[in-house]
């Protein structure tokens, strides 16, 4: 019955919708994202035939890019100069947290050098696993470690921001249900040409960054001024949460248990570094502690930016810092790997 990718995707949305509805009733933060994630995670580990294919995930990443581009306004350009100290600190943060993560993965988890390096990177699941596989890392350990980290961070951070910092979700704000026809056509053009141009120029995470850059240009010049629609935001959260949770399909509890235990330990260490760095930066710059936590958190680019968009934290601030971190990871890591491999041969 669930042999086709369409039926497995439909079943994923059934579980995800149930989880999202339950979390919404209870009043949890980001209910459609976290509820869908928890429900599909449990279902996949129990053997339910669910799946969100790579193609579907790619489309979702494009739409997230369009939505994030809409957060860039003329005010953001005026504020960018004030972010230079934290953007500089974000680069140093990548170096520190990667070093800490690698040491943990090698000494505690017993990974080889290449797998440990990629497992310790605070990047998103997709780009890091693709880079790691190309470099010869153990893809099963790598993907499980990053999946557990992304899930843990995505579960933990919204609860901290909601119940500790008492941030309000923008779900209470009246937003349009959908884009109008003109805005929709403009954004479709941004999606198509953004992906093509960014891929041709070999821009990192081109499905996200290409549409994001064109969408930001359109919004900065006043061609579109409307907020991201509520219905679209909820649908994206539902599908993204289901996509992350369904990645664990086909993996037994026994197989995932040991890797998950080490991954949880590494996540705690990384979050400790993140909270300390955010606290010190907040004191030094006067920028909100909560905003800095989201900007530096070792979750995926799209996931943490969507969390900021949904929780009322300045998404442009968070997105800019994660883009800086992604730039460092994508362009510097291959040089480190080349050095490691050259050293081994020598």
| CATH fold naming | Na+/H+ antiporter like fold
Quaternary structure of the protein: single chain
Average pLDDT, rounded to a whole number, is 78
Distance between the termini: 55 Å
Description:
- The chain is an all-alpha fold and 346 residues long.
- It has 15 helices and no strands.
- It has helices at 5-26, 31-45, 54-69, 74-80, 84-107, 113-119, 125-135, 139-163, 181-200, 206-220, 230-246, 253-285, 289-296, 301-311, 315-345.
- Helix 8 crosses helix 12 and helix 8 (139-163) packs parallel to helix 14.
Break the fold down into its secondary structure elements and pairings:
Layout (H helix, E strand, L loop, with lengths): L4 H22 L4 H15 L8 H16 L4 H7 L3 H24 L5 H7 L5 H11 L3 H25 L17 H20 L5 H15 L9 H17 L6 H33 L3 H8 L4 H11 L3 H31 L1
């Amino acid at each position: 019955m669930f042999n086709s990718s369409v039926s497995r995707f439909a079943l994923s949305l059934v579980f995800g919708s149930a989880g999202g509805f339950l979390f919404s009733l209870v009043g949890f933060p980001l209910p459609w994202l976290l509820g869908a994630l928890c429900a599909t995670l449990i279902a996949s580990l129990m053997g339910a035939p669910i799946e969100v294919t790579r193609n579907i995930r790619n489309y979702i990443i494009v739409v997230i890019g369009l939505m994030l581009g809409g957060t860039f306004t003329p005010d953001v350009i005026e504020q960018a100069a004030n972010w230079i100290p934290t953007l500089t600190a974000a680069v140093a943060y990548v170096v520190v947290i990667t070093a800490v993560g690698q040491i943990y993965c090698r000494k505690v988890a017993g990974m080889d050098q290449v797998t440990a390096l990629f497992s310790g990177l605070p990047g998103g699941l997709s780009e890091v696993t693709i880079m790691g596989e190309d470099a010869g890392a153990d893809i099963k350990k790598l993907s499980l470690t990053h999946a557990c980290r992304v899930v843990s961070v995505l579960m933990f951070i919204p609860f901290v921001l909601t119940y500790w910092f008492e941030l309000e979700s923008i779900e209470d704000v009246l937003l349009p249900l959908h884009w109008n026809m003109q805005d929709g056509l403009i954004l479709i053009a941004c999606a198509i040409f953004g992906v093509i141009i960014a891929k041709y120029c070999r821009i990192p995470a081109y499905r996200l960054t290409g549409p994001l850059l064109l969408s930001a240009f359109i919004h900065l010049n006043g061609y579109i001024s409307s907020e991201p629609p509520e219905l679209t935001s909820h649908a994206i959260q539902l599908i993204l949460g289901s996509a992350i949770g369904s990645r664990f399909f086909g993996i037994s509890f026994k197989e995932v248990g040991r890797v998950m235990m080490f991954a949880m330990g590494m996540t705690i260490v990384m979050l400790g570094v993140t909270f300390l760095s955010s606290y010190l930066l907040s004191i030094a710059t006067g920028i909100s502690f909560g905003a800095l936590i989201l900007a530096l958190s070792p979750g995926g680019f799209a996931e943490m930016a969507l969390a900021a968009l949904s929780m009322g934290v300045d998404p442009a601030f968070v997105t800019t810092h994660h883009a800086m971190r992604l730039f460092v990871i994508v362009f510097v890591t291959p040089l480190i790997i080349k050095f490691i491999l050259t050293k081994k041969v020598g």
